[in-house]
């Protein structure tokens, strides 16, 4: 670890490459922060949808809607999109999901 930062070394001794890697890492850190914030916002929205539906006598899940979402991620991200969608949907279930199997 560098003493000047909490980020690991860039892995190269070449200054130009190291500077470029550091700049790209700053952008990656920004993107990660946005992904985390969006993940949390989505999970909260999804949990409110579920709570609202249950309170009005509906079901907790709507599997046809989940299929549409999984297809959107698969189309946008390729085969890995299905796994991403499953994790996103699981986050949205939150405390409504009952016992966590993980
Ligand atoms: O769109 C809904 O009806 C939701 O409840 C939200 C959501 C989701 O996280 O996208 C969550 C559970 C449902 O099974 C389907 C979708």
From TrEMBL:
Entry's Gene Ontology molecular function annotations: chorismate mutase activity
InterPro entries linked: Chorismate_II_sf, Chorismate_mutase_highGC-bac, CM_dom_sf, CM_II_prokaryot
Swiss-Prot/TrEMBL GO biological process terms: chorismate metabolic process
Residue span(s) of domain Chorismate mutase: 15-102
Classification via Pfam families: CM_2
Name used for this protein in its record: Intracellular chorismate mutase
Organism lineage: Bacteria, Bacillati, Actinomycetota, Actinomycetes, Micromonosporales
């Amino acid at each position: 670890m560098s003493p000047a930062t909490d980020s690991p070394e860039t892995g190269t001794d070449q200054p130009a490459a190291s500077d470029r890697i550091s700049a790209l890492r700053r952008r990656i850190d920004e993107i990660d922060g946005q992904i985390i914030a969006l993940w949390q916002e989505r999970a909260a929205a999804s949990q409110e949808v579920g709570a609202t539906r249950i309170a009005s006598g509906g079901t907790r899940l709507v599997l046809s809607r989940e299929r549409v979402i999984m297809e959107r991620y698969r189309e946008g991200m390729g085969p890995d999109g299905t796994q991403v969608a499953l994790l996103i949907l699981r986050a949205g279930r939150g405390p409504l999901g009952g016992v966590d199997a993980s």
